[in-house]
Specification:
This is Glycosyltransferase involved in cell wall biosynthesis. Pfam families: Glycos_transf_1 (PF00534). It comes from Hymenobacter caeli. It is a single chain. The protein is an alpha/beta fold and 356 residues long. The protein has 15 helices and twelve strands. The strands form two sheets. Strands 2-1-3-4-5-6 form a six-stranded parallel β-sheet, with helices on both faces. Strands 9-8-7-10-11-12 form a six-stranded parallel β-sheet, with helices on both faces. Strand 7, helix 8 and strand 8 form a beta-alpha-beta unit. The protein is globular.
Length: 356
């Protein structure tokens, strides 16, 4: 008889979003391995009066099915409702939320968010990370944090990897006119947008001929451009949304990839840029520092350090041969990160840890 995995998360499985894309490939891998994979997400749960109700309605929906799965695989934010139910519970985290909350500058948040976020969001996260049978975490900083905060043992933690989309790897060198810096991510403080803009101001004052391509911002061009000084706005292009097929086009059109985030899980945008042979400049934290070997397959700088970022961009600008070499190493690093391979590792881990 086929084993049944019940998967619970706050997103519908598809190829559009980050977590949704990961779960899409996991679902395919479980089905390919002979499992029955049942997903409970927003479509199954239905309308919510408040987001905090999702875990409880998801569990109620599960109970209505009257089934006995071999395991729960549940996203961190809903996990508290699915532990200690007599069914093996595996919690997946794409960035431990308690660690994000503790590391975030809350001065930019509304009073309502500061007051309510920990109450309704972190309760289920804490309960799940404390009580789940096994944890699937995305980077070594999260692992260290969970060891310390929740007293979890290394033997109960699996560090999973994200993958890259199937692409025809055609190396594209850095020598493009104009020299174009690509930022791929939501236009939010967490992504280090102030760091990028301040570095750009320094580059302008140093007479570097640089343009900026901002994709996947989520916010429209008029909103994003207001965060840039007037004298730089003519060299900034904003693409709020793009198709998966166009991502490679934008990467091939750029000279460098920059991700100045303060907090990430393991950025899909970074891996995709590396797969396209881009020299990537990113922060020395979270999943980035698990992937990047500084000076070999990318360049690291401290979060928020716009002076260091501007220095590294200038270094790349003035030494295209070395920049190209780093890009080639980045491409090579991703050779073993197909979605089939990394998703199979997740299936194998659950298979080995489900009690028959």
């Amino acid at each position: 008889m086929k084993k049944l995995i019940v998967h619970i998360s706050e997103v519908d499985i598809n190829l559009e979003g980050g977590m949704a894309r990961v779960e899409y490939h996991w679902q395919n891998a479980f089905i390919k391995a002979g499992f029955v994979f049942l997903h409970i997400g927003p479509k199954q749960v239905g309308k919510l009066y408040h987001k905090f109700l999702f875990p409880y309605k998801a569990y109620r929906y599960f109970k209505s099915l009257n089934i006995n799965p071999d395991a729960f695989l549940v996203h961190e934010s809903a996990s508290g409702c699915f532990t200690n139910r007599g069914i093996p519970c595996f919690v997946e985290s794409h960035g431990v939320e308690r660690r994000f909350w503790e590391s975030t500058d809350k001065s930019s948040m509304s009073l309502k968010t500061r007051l309510l976020y920990p109450i309704w969001r972190l309760y289920n996260c804490d309960k799940g990370l404390n009580n789940a049978d096994k944890l699937l975490l995305i980077n070594s900083e999260d692992k260290d944090y969970v060891n310390s905060k929740y007293g979890r043992n290394n033997k109960d933690i699996f560090l999973f990897k994200n993958g890259i989309n199937n692409i025809q790897k055609i190396y594209s060198n850095t020598n493009k006119i104009p020299f174009t810096i690509l930022f791929n991510g939501s236009w939010t403080e967490r992504k280090g947008i102030r760091t990028l803009v301040k570095a750009a101001e320094i580059l302008y004052k140093n007479n570097l001929n640089v343009t900026y391509l901002l994709i996947g911002t989520g916010k429209d061009e008029k909103t994003v451009i207001l965060d840039w000084p007037e004298y730089l706005r003519s060299v900034v292009t904003v693409i709020p949304r793009f198709s998966q097929e166009n991502e490679n086009y934008f990467l091939q059109s750029s000279s460098l990839f920059v991700l100045p985030s303060f907090y990430e899980g393991q950025p899909l945008s970074l891996l995709q840029a590396m797969a396209n042979g881009k020299c990537c400049l990113t922060t020395n934290c979270c999943g980035q520092k698990d992937i990047i070997i500084d000076g070999v397959n990318g360049l690291l700088f401290n979060p928020g350090d716009y002076l260091e970022l501007s220095f590294l961009i200038t270094k790349c600008y003035n030494n295209l041969i070395n920049t190209d070499e780093i890009g080639k190493n980045a491409m090579q690093y991703t050779n073993n990160l197909s979605w089939d391979k990394v998703s199979h590792e997740v299936v194998q881990y659950l298979t080995e840890n489900i009690v028959s």
